[in-house]
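Q: How would the structure tokens look for this protein?
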Amino acid sequence: MADHGEIDRDGFRLEWVREGTGIPMLVIGAQRYYRRIFAPSLREHFEMVFFDSRQWARTPEGFDVGSLTLRDFSDDAEAVRQTTGLERPVVVGHSHHGALAMAYAQDYPEAARGLGLIASNPPLAALEGVESADDFFHRDASPERLAAHEHNQSSRPVHADVQTPQQFIDNYVANDARNWFDFCFDCRALWQGVEVNLEVLYQLFSADGFATWDLEPTDLPTFLALGRYDYLLPYFVWEAPKKRFATLTERLYERSAHTPPYEQPGQFNADLVSWAREKWAPPQ
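A: Here is the predicted structure in token form.
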């Protein structure tokens, strides 16, 4: 069985990599980034297929990015699933890729066995009427964290108008004290070799993407991992949306911010494996 390859989707070359054995898992997002985020030991329990969705691949010449809809991303994920032969995988998404995972499960309800949502974007409507991430950060963060953020903002490149992939990464790195439990962490190495497609990212948050997307109620078993110190997507934004999952296992990681699999790998792995075994362990 092949362990890597690529598929052509409207001229987008989407790379995929298969690692590990066990319960099938499809990880949506930049494959170079997420192969670094998930600890190697997780490959002992899951057959993990990582793939580049279109916001992490180069736009083919002449393609109209404005024509992309959320359904295109679901269709891409299904094409990867079929190409790699994954049979009813757990579909995993972190940050905005969590919303892509949920949209995929809505579009292909028979293709997934479960959802793994990690510090995921909820529907945008869920952010209305709750404390903003900025306000939460300035109210909740320690003086040391606030000072580290000010230092990063003054000592690292920051761009008011992001026009290039490097500027996108620069701004992400400049916000490390907001995005990571260890406010001295420098995440630059995680982005090495990652193709950033800004046009597609912006399209994802347009009216044809997340701006009008809503979460349908689902019976699909779901693992929701949130970070207590996530100042990008605070844990409390999930209070209303999580009620739409009939079978939900929720974990709040007390020494994590936006990326629990990397920040608390031992506890995250144990929780995810335990959840998956409870749902799909073969009979003895």
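The chain has a mean pLDDT of 96.

The first helix runs from residue 31 to 37.

Upvote if useful.
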